[in-house]
Amino acid sequence: MSSTHREYVRQNMPLIGIGTWQIKKEQTLYEVIDAGFKNGYRFIDTAQVYQNEATIGRCLERLLPIHGLTRKDIFITSKLAPSNAGAEKAPKSIENSMKDLKTDYLDLLLIHWPGSWLKSEDEKNRELRKESWKVLEGLLESGKLKSIGVSNFEIQHLEELKNISSIVPSVNQVEYHPHFHQDDLVKYCQDNDIHFQAYSSLGSPTYREKLSQDEVIKELAEKYQVSIPVLLLGFAYCQGISVLPRTTNPEHAIANFQVTKLVISQEDIEKLLKINVDHKTCWDPRVVS
């Protein structure tokens, strides 16, 4: 079981998915997923804290038959909310996620955050992580979860899991872009057969403009004749790191899928890795005990 669920991810999870953070309006989700299915997307990423699982479930119920797809044709990830961490709340919350998404299994379930919300030094964090992971293990064993992983986990959190479980996370979903790339964490995940997955590839809404104004990024987007968003997605995608671009515009979703045809040379990847900026745009898990 320890490696089987990681093999499931390798065989079934596409390298690009539809991110849905901050998107709650049903018509918007319907239009973006509809455009995505038409153009090759087969992967949807959501989370309990996004408060849109039920909306996505209704969209999928309508859209799958329209596109000639079944549940098995798509990959669905959700994430356990920090407020639902632990043995008491996690099982019911995950059952509710599946009910809302109108599915009897999830392809991937992640622990969303290593702490109990933003209480970074809470002494309960370690125990809650352990309890949550044991819940995920049980649901993996039962088949309700096909694979289990984590999000925003640092090396110390991943090392801690080694001490309590023989089951290695299949995925670690982390902020990753040319202005924030934790090379040591990427290498750790690669060395331990944990798929490294990027979020905020385009920068958060408050930082997107800074990324788009970077001279190296602008130069390479021009060189490869792609938009800056596609170049930024390609930075991860061309390293075998999966991406989850979020947009409320169906045309942007279609444009983002162009990354699947982009090949950035290793030399140019290195140029992006050498940009001398280290700016994290989202909450920082490095401070979570």
UniProtKB/TrEMBL annotation:
UniProt entry keywords in alphabetical sequence: NADP, Oxidoreductase
Gene Ontology MF terms in the entry: oxidoreductase activity, acting on the CH-OH group of donors, NAD or NADP as acceptor
Active site: 50 (proton donor)
Sequence ranges assigned to domain NADP-dependent oxidoreductase in this UniProt record: 16-275
Binding site for substrate: 112
InterPro entries the record matches: AKR, NAD(P)_OxRdtase_dom_sf, NADP_OxRdtase_dom
Family affiliation: Belongs to the aldo/keto reductase family.
Record's protein name: NADP-dependent oxidoreductase domain-containing protein
Lineage: Eukaryota, Metazoa, Ecdysozoa, Nematoda, Chromadorea
